[in-house]
Amino acid sequence: MPQKTVLSNGVPLFVIKGGREDVLRIDILISGGYGVQSQPLQALFTNRMLREGTADYSAEEISRMLDYYGAWIEMYSLQNCNRITLYTLGRHLCPMLDVLESMLKRPTFPQNNLETIKANNKAFYHINSRKVDVVAQRYFEQSLWGEGHPLGHIVAAEDYDAIEREALLRYHKSVYGSATMAFFLSGNVDENSIAAIESRFAREWGCKDLPAVQPDAPRPILGSRKIKLEGVLQSGIRVGCMAMDASHPDFHRFRFLTVILGGYFGSRLMSNIRERNGYTYHIEAEIDAYGTRNAFMISTETDNEYVEPLLLEVDKELRRLRDENIPDDELELVRNYTLGELCREYEGVLPKAEVFISQWLAGQPFEAVNDYLDTVCSVTAPELRSLAREYLRPEAMSQIIVGV
After folding, report:
1. Does domain 3-201 have CATH number 3.40.50.720?
2. Residue 157, exposed/middle/buried by CB under 10 A (0-12, 13-18, 19+)?
């Protein structure tokens, strides 16, 4: 389990020690994400622009330092969190922390850099708008939350044009600060690593309280929707619904049921739709996290002529789970596969950090990671059939088809 310590200003720091190599991973989580933005893309661009220049370093200097020290930074904006992840050698931690501190506390959001990034992102948007899988995902997420819901908005080209430097400054001022931060430090950690973070981030700074998050309930759009995309050779398909939160007593069993349906190469969907019928190259079922909420989703792409027969086979596999107990040999096979995947997830300290960060983002205690292991070892076929009857009902599903 992560070892928790608290910086002098109350910021939590979770330490996950392991590995002999001189490698560290630092994850900085800033509560808020796009759940508290006042316009589309505001959170994404604010977080992305942190590395484009600060009061202490230009964008070119930040890039040169990362290259010189062999470090890497990844930046994400999620529903309930903005996130920065740094990979670095332990002996270079201090100069990298200097860069991170400046990025978080003193960004300047240079106008020229902002215009360049807006143009690049808008170009990628137009390219992705010709990809059936991307467009299907956009409409599926709208179906989960509902039209008019802040989290159901489908980003448009005009949203990129509407982003202005002042909006990024406002968002940074209202969201970034010691009151909204948490640190995860993993790898070959020693007392000097912790002291280096303490020396740079232990004073109070930034916002005092996070803006209120609108607690709008999802207003899902059920049933089938077809979105035309002229000139494409394949159709993108999404089928699914909102699922229970990670705290729900059925969550881990439902997660295991999803693996049986479409979570590994020999799953029911792959065996039927790819291997037996040849309708697609790949199809999967998964549970996606949206902050503390989860969604169940089946995703695939197929030739336009196979859309209807593919959907009939998907419905057939869902019906089989509702109507029949899973055979013992299949249940044991998926148990063993899942246990092997859990071993892989915990194989090193850096992948292990990702597991605990996911727990934190879902609002779950770290100890809950063991609940899934217990469930995998003990769940029965009748329990899984009962879950399928309750949660995999066709009338509760949204279906998106993007193609010609």
Report:
1. no
2. exposed
Beta bridge partners of 17: 187
pLDDT (tens digit, 9 = 90+) per residue, 160-199? Answer: 999 999 999 999 999 999 999 999 999 999 999 999 999 9
Residue boundaries of the structural domains of the chain: 3-201, 223-403
| Long-range contacts at 155-162 (CB < 8 A, ≥ 24 apart) | 155/40, 155/41, 155/125, 156/40, 157/122, 157/125, 157/126, 159/39, 159/40, 159/41, 160/41, 160/118, 160/121, 160/122, 160/125, 161/118, 161/122, 162/39, 162/40
* Same CATH fold assignment for domains 3-201 and 223-403: yes
What is the average per-residue pLDDT within 314-329? 97
Q: Give the phi and the psi of residue 237 in degrees, each rounded to 5.
A: -130, 135
| Strand spans (E) along 179-290 | 181-187, 223-228, 234-243, 283-290
CB 261 within 8 A of CB 300: no
Tokens standing for 9?
């200003």
Confirm if 402 and 135 have CB atoms less than 8 A apart: yes
Instruction: Supply the Cα-derived Rg of the chain in whole angstroms.
Output: 23
E-strand ranges in 32-141 read: 72-77, 81-89
* Average pLDDT over all residues of the chain: 94
Residue with tokens 């899902």: 220
Name every residue whose Cβ is closer than 8 Å to that of residue 118 and which is 6 or more positions away in sequence.
45, 160, 161, 163
- The strand pairing partners of 235, in sequence order, are 302
Q: Which residue, among 131, 122, 140, 128, has the nearest Cα to 231 in the 3D structure?
A: 131
Query: Does residue 212 have a pLDDT over 80?
Result: no
Ramachandran angles phi, psi of 324, nearest 5°: -130, 145
pLDDT value of position 215 = 60
Instruction: Say what the pLDDT of residue 148 is.
Output: 83
Domain 223-403 fold is: Cytochrome Bc1 Complex; Chain A, domain 1 (3.30.830)
Helix axes 191-201, 93-105, angle to 10 degrees: 20
Count other Cβ atoms within 10 Å, centred on residue 77. 20
Distance separating alpha carbons of residues 38 and 192, to the nearest angstrom:
40
pLDDT at residue 216, rounded to an integer: 75
Confidence grade of residue 210 (pLDDT, cut at 50, 70, 90): confident
Whole-angstrom distance, CA of residue 310 vs CA of residue 287: 21
**Distance between CA 235 and CA 233 in Å, rounded?**
7
Q: Give the separation between CA 77 and CA 81, rounded to whole angstroms.
A: 6
